[in-house]
Amino acid sequence: MNGKRGRPLIGENPKAIKFQFRMDFTTLDELDQCAAELQVTRSDVIRLGIQLVHKQIVFIKNSTDERGQVK
């Protein structure tokens, strides 16, 4: 046998970290609905959600001063 076993790494950022968390059935249902509508995996929906929240945080930080006033 030569080479590595398992699935090949894909893309620039291989998904090497496994993270588990708890959720209620309502949230799981919403996650499944999003995944079905977008035709992506649950993990992809979670990644997209994190990216969306991060973009909002960066936008707010860049558009307000230290007192929270709009620049």
Automatic annotation (TrEMBL):
* Superkingdom field: Bacteria
Name the record gives this protein:
CopG family transcriptional regulator
Whose protein is this, by species?
Anaerotruncus massiliensis (ex Liu et al. 2021)
